[in-house]
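User: Could you check the structure of this?
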Amino acid sequence: MYLYKTYFKELMIKYGINKNSSETIILLPGLPYYPRPEKFIKNLIIKGFNVIYIRYSGTYESEGLFLKEDPAIMISKLITYLKTNGTFIELYANITHDLLSSKVIIIGNSFGGGVAFSILKHNCGVDRLIALSPVINSLEYYKMENKFEEAQKLKRFLLKGFKNIFRFEESDYDKMVTGNKIISIDTKNIKVKTNIFMSEDDNVVPKNHLDSFSFSKNVIIKILKSSGHLSFDSLNINELTELINN
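Assistant: Sure, the predicted C-alpha cells are below.
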C-alpha cells in the first residue's frame, strides 16, 4: 500500500487512497510532530477511507512560514477543494488521483485539535470532528498552571531542535500563545458531530482544560483512564471506524 505526496497550494500533503471510498479523513498532528503514523494511516485505508496527513505551512516540505496565519485557513481551502474537485497529481509518477469527497472527517491531536476547532469557523464542509487531548484555545491553555514558561521552552525546542523544519517568526509564535493566531470556534455553537477524548493522567493537556468551555449538544466528551497524552496511535482502529460510521 503506497502513500503519495503532492502539494495543495503551499501545503505538502501525504495521502493514501481506498479506490472504493469517497470518504476522506484528514489527520492534523500535534506540535512538534514527527514523520507520519504510517501504520495508523494504512489501517484507516483498509477500513475504507482515503487519508490525508497534513504538513502545516512552514514545516517540513511545505512552503511558507509556520503560524504566519491560522493553519486552519489553508486547511479549510483544502477541504473545500476535496468537496468540489479533489484532483491531485502525485509528484513521483505524475499520476492524477481523484479524491472528490462526499464526507470529510477531521482527526486532530493536541495542537492539531485546536486547529480542527478553528477550521469549523470556515464552514468548509467538515462532516465529523474527532479531537484527542485538544488545545481548544491557546490562551486558556497556557493560563492553566502557569504554562507560559512551558510555551517558551517549546519555542526554543522548535527553533533549535527542529532547525529549518519548523520555520516561523517568534512574534507569530507568541501570538499563538496569547490566543491571537489560532482562533477557536464558539464551542457552544458547534453544529458538526464532535467527539473529544481526554485522559485522566494527561500532564500535557489536562482534562480540566475543558472546564473553560461550554459545549453544544453535538459534542460528546469521553475521559479515558491511564492513557497519557493522546495521539493517533491511542485510538483503537475498529472502535474509531464504528464511531465515524455512527
